Amino acid sequence: xxxxxxxxxxxxxxxxxxxxxxxxxxxxxxxxxxxxxxxxxxxxxxxxxxxxxxxxxxxxxxxxxxxxxxxxxxxxxxxxxxxxxxxxxxxxxxxxxxxxxxxxxxxxxxxxxxxxxxxxxxxxxxxxxxxxxxxxxxxxxxxxxxxxxxxxxxxxxxxxxxxxxxxxxxxxxxxxxxxxxxxxxxxxxxxxxxxxxxxxxxxxxxxxxxxxxxxxxxxxxxxxxxxxxxxxxxxxxxxxxxxxxxxxxxxxxxxxxxxxxxxxxxxxxxxxxxxxxxxxxxxxxxxxxxxxxxxxxxxxxxxxxxxxxxxxxxxxxxxxxxxxxxxxxxxxxxxxxxxxxxxxxxxxxxxxxxxxxxxxxxxxxxxxxxxxxxxxxxxxxxxxxxxxxxxxxxxxxxxxxxxxxxxxxxxxxxxxxxxxxxxxxxxxxxxxxxxxxxxxxxxxxxxxxxxxxxxxxxxxxxxxxxxxxxxxx
Length: 473
Ligand code: MSP
Description:
Elements: E1 4-13, H1 20-38, E2 42-50, H2 54-62, H3 67-84, E3 91-94, H4 98-113, E4 117-127, E5 132-134, E6 152-161, H5 167-175, E7 180-182, H6 184-195, E8 201-202, E9 204-205, E10 213-214, E11 217-222, H7 224-229, H8 231-238, E12 249-253, H9 257-270, E13 278-282, E14 285-287, H10 302-309, H11 311-320, E15 328-330, H12 332-360, H13 363-370, H14 383-387, H15 391-412, H16 414-419, H17 423-444, H18 449-461
Parallel strand pairs: 1-2, 1-12, 2-3, 7-13, 12-13, 14-15
Antiparallel strand pairs: 4-5, 4-6, 6-8, 9-11, 10-11
Helix pairs in contact: 2-3, 4-8, 5-6, 10-11, 11-12, 12-17, 15-17, 17-18
Bound molecules: 5'-O-[(L-methionyl)-sulphamoyl]adenosine (MSP).
5'-O-[(L-methionyl)-sulphamoyl]adenosine binds at residues 10-13, 21-22, 24-25, 50, 228-229, 231, 252-253, 255-256, 284-285, 292.
C-alpha cells in the first residue's frame, strides 16, 4: 500500500476575485503535492472556498446580489485561476455545499453534547475583515492593523467554546511536535501566546444570516471560522477519503496561523478526533514594498502574469523570490528578471544542446541519444530541502545544476571539438549533457510541470521549440 498524504491550502474568502497572494499559497501547496505524488505516495490535495459569514454577505449586498448568486459567480473565477496556474487539487470544497454543512452541524452538536459549549452574553469589538473579535491590545490607534478599520462594538448572546480548557494539552502537543508547527519561529510564537492563557471563544453569531444554522437554535449561525476549519475534515467524508484523516499538512498564511494552530486542534481534541500532523505557516508578500490592496491599486492578478509569462514562469518566480515561510516582496520588474533567468539558463541550455546534437550527430547517434532514460543514480537531490519545505532552496539547487551545464558547455566548447575532429570526445560530452537535461527536467516536474513535459519531449525527439519565448512588450 502506498503511503497516504493529505495536504490542503487555506480555503479562500470568496469576497473578491483571486489575486496572486492566493495564487502563492496554492502554487506552493501544489508543488508539495506533486512532489509527494512523484515519490509514489497516494496524495489527496484539497483546496476550496470559504463562502459564509458577514464579509461575504456584505460584499454581495454591495452589488445588490444575494450571497448565493454572488459566491456562485466568484466560484467560477477561483476555479479558472487554479486551472490557469495548473493547480492539481484532487477535490475542491465550497463551504456552501450542503454535505459540508451537515458535517459542521453534526460536529458542533457533538461539541455541545460533550459539554464544551456554553451560552453567554458578550460584548466585544468585531472586525468583519478578520471575521473575529479583537482585543483592545490588538488594535493600533483603535484600528484593526490588518484592515485599517475600526471594529464595531457588538453585543449579543453567543455560544462559547471552552478553548481555555485545552491550553495545557495544546502546549504539550506543540512542544513535542506531535502537532508540528513550522517554521520553528512560529512554533515558539504560538507557545508564547498559549502561555499567556487562552480565552474561550464565541462560536456563533446572532446577526449573521449567511451561514450554517446553529444546531437547536436557528436564531444563531455557526461562526464562520468554525465552519471553515471543519472543511479539512468534512471533505474526507464528502469525497470518500476518510482514510486520509488526519491531514498530513495544512499550508496557511501567517494571518490565519492562530486559527489553525490553536482553535482547530482544540476543536479536534474536544471532538476526540485525531489532530492534523503538521502546519506550515508561510509569509506574506508585499508588492513593491506595499501591501497589496485595491485602494493602492497594486493588486496583481494571476491571469495577467500568466498571459505575459506563462504558467510555469509565474510558478517559478513566486517560489524563488523569497524563502517559503518568510515574508518577502514581489514586483513586476523582478518577475521579468526571473523570466530572463529562465530563458538564459534553461531555455538557452536546451536550445544549444539540442541544436548541437542535431548538427554533429549522425542518425544512429541521434537515435541512441533520443532513447536515453532518466538515470536514477544521477538525480538532483532536493530531498533535504523538500523535507523542510524549503521550496526556494530546492529551486536554487535545480538552477545551479542548469548553470553548471552551461558552464560545462562553455569550458568544453563542443564546436571546437567538432572542428578538431575529436568526435568521440564530442559524442561523450553531448550524450552526457543530454542525459543531464533529463535529470534537470525530472527535478522540475513538481515546480514547472508543463515545462518539464516539453523538455522531455524535446529530449526524446530533438525537436526544438523555445521553452521561454521572447516576451512581446
Ligand atoms: N477564508 C480564510 C481561510 C480559512 S482556512 C480554513 C482566509 N481567506 S483569505 O482568502 O483571506 O486568505 C487565505 C490565504 O491566502 C492566506 O492565508 C494566505 O495563504 C494567502 N494570501 C492572501 N494574501 C497574501 C499575500 N499578500 N501574500 C501571501 N499570501 C497571501 O483567510
